[in-house]
Amino acid sequence: MSSGPLVVLVGPMGSGKSTVGALLAERLGASYRDTDADIVAAEGRAISDIFIEDGEPHFRALEREAVRVALAEHTGVLALGGGAILDEGTRALLAPHPVVYLSMDVEEAVKRVGLNTARPLLAVNPRRQWRELMDARRHLYTEVARAVVATDERTPEEVAQAVLDALELKDA
Ligand SMILES: Nc1ncnc2c1ncn2[C@@H]1O[C@H](COP(=O)(O)OP(=O)(O)OP(=O)(O)O)[C@@H](O)[C@H]1O
Ligand SMILES: O=C(O)C1=C[C@@H](O)[C@@H](O)[C@H](O)C1
Ligand SMILES: [Mg+2]
């Protein structure tokens, strides 16, 4: 058995990493951890402030380190930030781990996060911006993932069950 997280969730913002991650942690009798939260705690500032003050490349370097530490320390369910897979070093760190890509189509994305002003990436023309973002990222999510679980028209409970099935994990 390799050590490290039981499940690593990747996927775009709003795909359900936090919601499904918490359900999975409960089912597996494990704890949930989120590298976005680790970065905010370590830096003492919001992710949006890190982007504005230091730029995305600096954020991606902080994120790579947060992912490295979490993969080494955490034995439960781990969710990564939506853009973590953009960094080649982060992708390399993920290779030995049970990574699941939570996917969703554009209509589901607009329903879940398109009207939420807290996600300014999608604020102006949600459908076009979503397509552009996913055109740049889809192959990277797929590359790092051991399994892809579609979340469209599935409840969070059904998605959690599909993740357990895909990784052949049993409830605690
Ligand atoms: N399978 C689902 N069906 C319907 N709504 C869902 C589903 N999964 C999550 N949601 C809803 O979509 C929204 C985004 O979910 P969540 O915060 O879990 O996504 P996330 O991947 O953690 O996003 P972020 O990258 O911003 O942290 C929430 O309002 C959540 O309740
Ligand atoms: O999709 C992205 O690039 C991001 C997603 C969030 O989880 C955060 O990691 C940050 O806002 C960047
Ligand atoms: Mg989340």
Task: Tag the structure with descriptive keywords.
172 residues; alpha/beta; Rossmann fold; five-stranded parallel β-sheet; 8 helices; 5 strands; binds adenosine-5'-triphosphate; binds magnesium ion
Total number of domains: 1
Distinct small-molecule ligands in the complex: adenosine-5'-triphosphate, (3R,4S,5R)-3,4,5-trihydroxycyclohex-1-ENE-1-carboxylic acid, magnesium ion
Q: Number of DSSP strands?
A: 5
Strand arrangement in the largest pleated sheet: 2-3-1-4-5
Tell me the CATH topology.
Rossmann fold
Count the helices. How many? 8
Domain AAA+ ATPase: 3-146
Main location: cytoplasm
InterPro entries: AAA+_ATPase (IPR003593), P-loop_NTPase (IPR027417), Shikimate/glucono_kinase (IPR031322), Shikimate_kinase/TSH1 (IPR000623), Shikimate_kinase_CS (IPR023000)
Keywords: Amino-acid biosynthesis, Aromatic amino acid biosynthesis, ATP-binding, Cytoplasm, Kinase, Magnesium, Metal-binding, Nucleotide-binding, Transferase
Topology readout:
Blueprint: E1 7-10, H1 17-28, E2 32-34, H2 35-43, H3 47-54, H4 56-73, E3 77-79, H5 88-94, E4 99-103, H6 106-114, H7 126-144, E5 147-150, H8 156-167
Parallel strand pairs: 1-3, 1-4, 2-3, 4-5
Helix pairs in contact: 1-8, 2-4, 3-4, 4-5, 6-7
The site of magnesium ion has 3 residues, from α1.
Pathway: Metabolic intermediate biosynthesis; chorismate biosynthesis; chorismate from D-erythrose 4-phosphate and phosphoenolpyruvate: step 5/7
GO molecular function, one term: shikimate kinase activity
Catalytic activity: shikimate + ATP = 3-phosphoshikimate + ADP + H(+)
